[in-house]
Design goal:
Order of helices and strands: EEEEEEEHH
Shape: globular
Radius of gyration: 15 Å
Distance between the termini: 47 Å
CATH topology: Tumour Suppressor Smad4
CATH architecture: Sandwich
Structural class: alpha+beta
Largest sheet: 4 strands, antiparallel
Number of domains: 1
Strand order of the largest sheet: 4-3-6-7
Strand content: 25-35%
Number of strands: 7
CATH class: Mainly Beta
Helix content: 25-40%
């Protein structure tokens, strides 16, 4: 249980399922990687994901602290599932920066 003055009981419910975290927004003020999660929506977070409940920023990790690469992978996973066009745009930009033609 997480208790903090800046987190209201109605922000979200969080549940660990295996090595993933299920985050269900029950009110306003929930963001995952700066993307709003509407009330009633849920998402599965992987190791390295960052999310906000109100003014409180949190990062999900399993055993070891997440690296920058873990955080990038977690964000890509979230975008692939919830914002595929944003994921595709970022993948194309990343490949272009690496000098690959597609």
């Amino acid at each position: 249980m997480l208790v903090d003055a800046h987190i209201l009981p109605l922000h979200a419910t969080v549940r660990l399922i295996g090595d993933r975290l299920m985050l269900r927004a029950t009110g306003e003020g929930v963001t995952v990687f700066t993307r709003k999660l509407a009330a009633g929506r849920k998402t599965m977070l992987t190791h390295g994901a960052t999310f906000n409940l109100g003014d409180m920023a949190l990062q999900f990790n399993t055993v070891a602290p997440p690296s920058a690469l873990d955080t990038q992978r977690a964000e890509r996973t979230l975008l692939f599932k919830h914002a595929p066009l944003t994921w595709l745009r970022r993948q194309c930009a990343r490949l272009a920066m690496a000098g690959r033609r597609f």
